[in-house]
Design goal:
Elements lengths: L5 H19 L6 H31 L3 H33 L4 H35 L1
Protein name: Required for excision 1-B domain containing
Organism: Ilyodon furcidens
InterPro entries: REX1-B
Length: about 140
């Protein structure tokens, strides 16, 4: 099966690398450069979102409501992953700015655990999507 969603992964990797570069500019962060990167990534996700809506539309035309439901679940989990990633980035910056605060490190570990659970859920949804799409053949 061809992956329908390769671009979000590449876009997320770019964003994470961008945030790591941003953190290296601390304590006097280069916010303008990071803000531009976030803008570019937001535009990329907007394009991806339009593509996903088109795919869902085609699936509806083909009377594939179950596949549409999987895509909607994927979108929800991807949104949650983005929110967790942003939360993790803020926690990392907080830890960098306040190295004496051990609570920051604990918070980072908790968020990382939530991200792992989210990725497991995404994987499960993708498996269901694959299984159901093979039934359509």
């Amino acid at each position: 099966m061809v992956c329908l969603f390769p671009a979000p992964l590449e876009t997320c990797v770019e964003e994470v690398r961008g945030h790591e570069a941003y953190l290296r500019t601390g304590p006097h962060y280069d916010f303008e450069h990071y803000k531009q990167l976030v803008h570019e990534i937001t535009q990329a996700f907007s394009g991806i979102s339009k593509e996903v809506l088109e795919i869902k539309g085609r699936l509806r035309e083909l009377d594939q409501a179950d596949l549409c439901e999987h895509i909607e679940k994927l979108q929800s989990k991807e949104k949650q992953k983005l929110e967790l990633t942003a939360k993790l980035q803020l926690a990392k910056q907080q830890a960098q700015d306040h190295p004496e605060d051990e609570g920051c490190l604990e918070g980072i570990q908790e968020i990382k655990h939530e991200i792992i659970k989210n990725k497991e859920a995404l994987s499960e949804i993708m498996q269901d999507f694959k299984y159901d799409s093979e039934e359509c053949d």
